[in-house]
What we know:
It contains 2 helices and 7 strands, in the order H-H-E-E-E-E-E-E-E. It has 159 residues and is an alpha+beta fold. The longest helix is centred in the first third of the chain and has 26 residues, at 16-41.
Amino acid sequence: MNTTINPPIVPVSPWIWPGLLIVGPAAVIVACVITAYFVIQHPDGLVASDYYKQGKAINAQLAQVNRAEQLGLSTMQLNATDDKLFITFPDARLRDRIEIILAHPVDADRDIRAFATPSADGLYEVAVSGKIKERRRVIVTDAPAHSWRVEALLTPNHR
Length: 159
């Protein structure tokens, strides 16, 4: 005698398939709401509202850099100690007063601005309060006119 044992039949809820069909779109709606929240709270600042003015300023800076190359000022040499910065222009005989900006990499309020006149041998000397600990962009321009501009990177020596 063969007896077959049939497993018990578990009743399936009639809502299982509609529930599975609703879970996917519901997850997408929740993800869209979360994404919209982050977009509204943190807008993308890549596009400036005054892009035309910024473009004109960039063109003016490029013209200043080209003028510095014409004057032989593009080979600026920097030498820094703990409390002073020395600047020379070996390819040019510059005797004018210059403006020096040591631009902080993150905080513009911590920029160092100074004016300097050359010594007899053409060396510009700027006193710096405290040791410069971070890399700075050095921007040098003629003081009143701003007709030329030279930039270099100052990397401090960590001893």
